[in-house]
Amino acid sequence: MTGNPDHKQDEEGLKDSIVRFQSYLHGGTSSLLSTLPTLIVFPVYKTVFRQQIHNTPIHQAVGQLYKEGPAKLYRGVTPPLLMRTLNGTLLFGLQDTLLLQLSHSSQNVIPTAALPALAGFGAGIVEALVFTPFERVQNVLQNGRNDRHLPTLKTVLVRLKDQRLALGYYRAFLPVTARNALGSSLYFGLKGPMCAVVAGQGLSPLISSFISGTMTSMAISLALYPLSVLVANMQAQVGWEVKGVMACWRVLWQSRQRSVTLLYRGGSLVILRSCITWGITTAIYDRQQKSSG
Fold it and tell me: Would you say which domain of life the source belongs to (predicted)?
């Protein structure tokens, strides 16, 4: 005697809902646990930011931060801490949800191997929509030239609120969306195959996940670094002359003397940050997913 088909469908739907919830939970947990490395490497990130904005060598960027003193070293750290936890929750959970929907609806139209990357692309677009205001506030706070007229988080929020969305909280939304969508697509598309290759060398699953997350994030960070530099330069000031994306890119390219080397100034520190944060996040997330599976 066979069971009720509707009952089986309800059970499968409930099971899928639980699995999807676990993806959101595990994504948030793994990112929350990586907030300690975020705190540790925040001075590194801020050094990179100064290089991106002022086009200075690393010793001059470090000198700027040293001169400002320890009290201002962690100015702007609150937005990235909030972003790390919320970002992991949304990114991993939404990608898994989209992956399920695509798996059910693609019906062999889209190759199975491409589905994680496609789901990651969609999750990256939503991520940009949600977190561009956080990044905008963070970049304004980290710019030392804003310390005098925008000394606190509250003054920054009030000033951005007075601007139109495209000039205030959603300044540089298009390059942020391009960077996040492409980055998420590459991350979820490459993470699994990279992990399989590393695991084939006889390493433990935890180490394999860490290395795959590190290598994947390193490659993505370097490939999309020019977009990050563009975003930082577009978002760092408030109330200056307003330029579009292409105009800002031309100004940035001219300021770097049309040199790719100068454009990538600070890129080596991005590798360090990616190794620490995304390596740990990937390892913790994969471990939780396997434990709950």
Answer: Eukaryota
Predicted model pTM: 0.81
Closest CA to 287 of 172, 208, 228, 220: 208
d(CA 58, CA 44) in angstroms, rounded, equals 10
Could you read off the pLDDT of 67-92 as tens digits, one per residue?
888 777 877 677 667 777 778 788 88
Domain boundaries, the chain: 5-292
- Among 124, 218, 137, 223, residue whose Cα is nearest residue 172: 137
Burial class (CB in 10 A: 0-12, 13-18, 19+), 124: buried
Candidates 195, 174, 181; CA nearest to 98 is 181
Superfamily name and number for 5-292: Mitochondrial carrier domain (1.50.40.10)
Measured CA distances, 1 to 4, 5, 6 (Å): 10, 12, 15
